[in-house]
Amino acid sequence: MADEGQVLDPGDGGLVADGICDRITFTSGVNPPAPGDWLGIAFYPSSSDPDCRLRNCRIDYAGGNDSGNVAIVDALPDIRADSIGWSGSWGIFLGGV
After folding, report:
1. Taking the CB of residue 97, how many other CB atoms lie within 10 A of it?
2. pTM (2 decimals)?
3. What is the pLDDT of residue 40?
4. Count of Cβ atoms closer than 10 Å to residue 32 Cβ
């Protein structure tokens, strides 16, 4: 669970969440949860694209500050078979040139 307001940002590295065997859940730490409780997961140009994967993950109750549950800005993460919902703004936010 992510703390209120937290964003998961791999920075210059990556984030590998491979839930092929068991689904991985990223969600609010607030009870009861509400859309926008936390900022979400973000991938930026400095992220290492080959090391950025979300597979068979559930990402809920993020999107605080209009960031989306997952924000992708000039990056190419591998995102597949995920459930993304209950956002305070966007499910997936895409930005860049």
Report:
1. 5
2. 0.88
3. 93
4. 7
